[in-house]
Structure formats: C-alpha cells, structure tokens
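From the thread on structure requests for the teaching lab: each student submitted one protein with a one-line request. Submission from student K.M.:

"Model Zona pellucida glycoprotein 3c from Lates calcarifer, tokens only."
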Amino acid sequence: MKMGLLHTGLLLLLFCSVYSYQFKSRAGYGLFVQDPELEWGRMETVIGEEMSPAPAPKAKIWKSASNSGSSTPEAKKFPEYVRVESSKYPKTAFKPEKGARPLPAWVKEMLLPPTVAPKSGIASGKAAVRPKLIEILCHVDRMYVRIRREIFKTKTAYKDLKLGKCPVNQGTKVHYYFLYLLKTDCGFKKENNVDYLSISNTLHYKPSSVIVREIPFDIPLQCKFPRNFHSYKIGFHPQLQGGTVYKALQPKSSVSLTPQDASGNEITGSKTYTLGQPMYFEAKRSDKTSKSGDQRMYINKCFMTASENPNSNLKYTVIDKYGCMVDGKMTDQSKFLSDSSKKIQKFSVGAFVFKDKLSSSSSSQQLYMHCAISMGKLTPTASSKACNYDPATKKWKELYGDDSVCTCCESSCPSGQSKASSNIVTSRSWKVGLSGNDGYADVDPRMKPFDADTFSWEDPDMAEHRDFLNYWEHDY
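Reply posted by the TA:
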C-alpha cells in the first residue's frame, strides 16, 4: 500500500515537472521562472508603482496677523507633475520673462483637469469584467506578453505562436507566456520620437499543420515610454539685491599674429605640419592703429606651448633677447623674413613636438605661438632688432640694419627703455603630426642642401650630427 502511494506521488511530481518545463526546451533562451503567474503579478506591481504620480504636497494655511481668528482661503491643489506631449502645446508659454501675463486657457485646463464623476454601477452590483485575451507588460528592459489558451482549438497551438522570432517559453493551464528581455534577438524595434520612446514587435500565429482549425493572425504590439521634458514643483520669486560689479576691461590687441603658408596666405582652416617642415607666421598692426612711416615692428620674444595659456610651464623659446632668433642655431628653417613693409614682421620656425607630450594614442600635437611685440624706430638697436644666425659665418646678422646690434645675442642684450607698447599676442593653434604621410602636409619642406665648400665633419657644430645623418632614412 505504501509503495503504491509512493509510486503515485512520484508520478504526480513527474507530471507537474513535465508540464512546467514543456516550454523551456523549445525556447532555449529568454527568462525562465518557476511560476509565470507570480512573475507577471510582480511586474504589474513594479510598473504600477513607477507609473503612479507622487502625491502633491499639502497646501499651507497662512494666518493673517491683523485677525488671528481668520485665515486665507486654502490654496488650490495642483498635481506635482503632469505628463503632456510637447508637440500639442507650444513651449513658449512656459518661457520665463519679465513681468506678469495671464496663462492661456489651455494651460489652465492642463494644470487643472476637470474632475470626472465616477460611473454608477449596475443596481445589482458591478458588471462582470471580461477577461483580456492578450495582455502586455512593458518595462525599461523587458516585454512580457501572455495570451489565453482558450483562443485556440488545438493543444499544440503554442508551437506555431511566436513573438517576433521567439517562441512561447512559459505556460500555465490558462495562459501562454512570452517572458523576454529587450536585448534578446526576438526582433524588437526601437524608435525614438519627440514625446516618447517606442519598443514594438508582432505576435504571429501561423498554424503549420495540413488542416486549419484557427485563422492565422499577426497582431502588432507596442510599448510607449513617455519623455518628461519639464517638471514644476513650486513657484518661486527671486530676491534681487542691488549693487555694482566691477570688471577689468582688456582692450583688444592692435597686433595680430597669424599662421601662414609658404606663399604668404593666411591659414584659416585646420592645418597639420610634419616634423621639420617650416611653419610661417606674420605679425602686423591693424590699419586703424597704424602711425607714420618712421616706425618698425620688433618681436622681442616668441615661445611655443602645447596650451593656449602663455603661462604654461612647458614652453620652448624661438626668439629671445629682444629680437634674436635663438632657434636659428638649431635649424636654418627658423629665421626672420623680410617684407616690403617694416610694419609687418614675418618669420619661420621648423616644426617640432614636445617630448613630454608624446603619446601612443595620439598622432599629433596641438601647439600655440606667443610673442611679445612692440613698435619702435626704424633704426635697430640692441634692445629692438631682428637678428638671424648665419651658420656659414657663425655670426648674427640684422634683417635690415647694422649687424653690430646683434653681437649681444651670444651673451645678454640690454632691455633699453620701458616697452610701453610691448604686449603678448597668441596665434591660433595648429597641429604637428607624428607621421610622415603625405596627407599631413600640403607644402614642400624646401630643404636647403649643404654647400660642399662649407661642409666639413671637422666642424664641431656638425660632428655631433654624424650618426644622425648616417642613419636618417631619406624619402625625398
């Protein structure tokens, strides 16, 4: 007898297990829970709590000081937030502006919706609610669908029922269930609209048997998640306090420093140089500030940084000592250039990058040029000059005047009188590429060949570059 009861219990347990797991083997993916009814109820509770509006704050009653027994009427109770579609209402009605104006009628209707009286039930009691044949639950990461089994006439209808590309993966005596996350490859379609986010799919039923007892159907399903653009809690009135705010005015510099190409045209767009390629610059004054022709522009100092801030710690000086092109001792591409007008000063610098800024993740560096510029007399002095280094004679030469003013470039040059007209001017940025591809440059490097008469390995200035030239891979 006991053995018979034991066998009966085991058979019942086996039947329940087969019934609960009959859809799991067909799905192969998706969510699987022990009780789909409990999971459905849990998600209904979660969604209901998230969608229910928060209660409005209680209105405060302010008592009058003149009459302690009276009070102002209770303020109208507004909902804490209202979901509205921005396409139906113009946003300009909520734009803050000076003064006061009446709200449009449609705003009042939106904030104070008319109360709807509850419908009176049937005298004998509430009417019987017809069960829904197909239900859908939408959440931020999943879509649940269930369909009543009574719709179908065959017991194996679940085999031909699909949500997009996914089959039924749960079932009870009453419902077939689709419990799937949105990341599952079921064919969920995501669409972004102005007022809502839409997730859609289609419920298919296509009987595969040779005979048909039910009509095939395709039912589109859609989840809408509204977008809340604005929320208003309580009104507020800012308290304005008088006073005076002082701000130092910095007049716009009358001198400009612009990068140029080899032909003297200003570079307006983005520009990337290759290493060693000459970069050209022009410093000039605007026409409105130009004075008589007895003046000349002088560049007292120039330095380059990897930051727009001229006070950056990482900097490299190319012009120093009140007009000495000190970088000309490193490369013959750095030099002052002559021009028809002495109110304009042009110069070139060989492109380089900062070693401390080298990075494997970046193919270029962004650089800035900062120059201290002043106007002075046409005749150069030791404190106002434009001196280039001549590697052939190993001497300094002034661009327009007497070379004797450049002798201090090897030591220190006097500052002269106060540079009242001197100011720091920063150029637009440019980039120096770390690759030798042709796409980085559209100007030839214009390399100057060595003169056989002046070139010598015994030259102490050239001996240190012997290994560099021997192992340099020429590609020109």
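TA comment: The chain has six helices and 21 strands. The domain at 23-49+131-226 is CATH 2.60.40.3210 (Immunoglobulin-like).
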